[in-house]
Write a structure and sequence with these properties.
The chain is of the alpha/beta class. The chain is built from 4 helices and 28 strands. The strands form 3 sheets. The protein has an 11-stranded mixed sheet with strand order 1-4-7-10-13-16-19-22-25-27-28. A 9-stranded parallel sheet has the order 2-5-8-11-14-17-20-23-26, with no helix packed on it. An 8-stranded parallel sheet has the order 3-6-9-12-15-18-21-24, with no helix packed on it. A hairpin with a 4-residue loop joins strand 27 and strand 28. The longest helix is centred in the C-terminal third of the chain and has 14 residues. The protein is elongated and about 70 Å long.
Length: 264
């Protein structure tokens, strides 16, 4: 049975699963869908065309589905889609998309969004992502699965952050981050591979060794970057993790990458 605190304000048009919990002083708008097992603890605002997936828990003072912070937004109907089993902590903000962008902001499953983190309009965030306290995504940022973004780090608009990468605290990410990479600094530069994260996620020693060899070759100082890219692709064609980095770079070769501060 749906449990709604008497002080909560819930629009009659909102779509609520039968076991949703809505705590004190929360506000749920008319174009909102809350799926099975969603819990809004207290003082939560869910507005706009927002869907929150199964089993999500939203802590006090979070605002989900607010309009994009974009001067071109004229009130068009755009969406925020949040996947299942996310933990969304206090003061988190996630905005809907823009009509001039994709029109939708998407959040994957099983993420942890710590206090004060922000996901801007038109972002696409993968599964098992962690945004630590105060981490911020500008508009149109794409983040792969299992990314960890440290406290107060920020990703510039349109940045791509590959799977299993690590963004250090306070980092300012203005360029694309390769899958499995580890970056920090202002502006962020590539410091190597996210070896701690790869080991924690159960990557094999063979895969990690292949990634390390590919990284050393890719960012060596001999030849051009394009030549090294082709050499790595040829030498590690049978290693999916290495080819994921190659495909990530090739997907838009015109985009700037986070590179090592010094030659490796």
């Amino acid at each position: 049975m749906t449990r709604i605190h008497p002080t909560a304000i819930v629009a009659p048009e909102a779509q609520l699963a039968s076991d949703v919990e809505i705590g004190p002083y929360s506000i749920v708008g008319p174009d909102v869908t809350l799926k099975a097992g969603v819990r809004l603890l207290s003082h939560v605002v869910v507005e706009g065309a927002t869907t929150i997936g199964e089993g999500c828990t939203v802590h006090p003072f979070a605002n989900l589905g607010g309009p994009p912070q974009h001067l071109g937004h004229k009130g068009e109907r755009t969406e925020l889609l949040i996947g299942p089993r996310n933990i969304i902590r206090e003061h988190v903000t996630m905005h809907t998309g823009t009509a001039s962008g994709k029109g939708v902001t998407t959040i994957g499953a099983d993420g942890l969004y710590m206090v004060g983190s922000h996901v801007a309009h038109d972002c696409a965030v993968g599964d098992f992502v962690v945004l630590a306290k105060g981490a911020t995504l500008g508009g149109h940022v794409a983040i792969g699965d299992y990314v960890f973004m440290g406290g107060l780090a920020a990703a510039h608009q349109f940045s791509r952050i590959g799977r299993y990468s690590f963004i250090g605290g306070l980092a300012a990410v203005t360029k694309d981050v390769i899958p499995y990479g580890s970056v920090w600094g202002n502006h962020a530069h590539l410091e190597g591979l996210n070896l701690v994260g790869l080991k924690r996620r159960g990557f094999s020693r063979e895969a990690i060794n292949a990634l390390r060899a590919a990284y050393r070759l890719l960012f060596a100082d001999e030849g051009t970057f394009q030549e090294r890219l082709e050499d790595v692709a040829e030498a590690h064609a049978g290693t999916p993790e290495v080819m994921e980095i190659i495909d990530f770079i090739r997907a838009d070769a015109s985009r700037p990458l986070c590179l090592p501060e010094r030659e490796v």
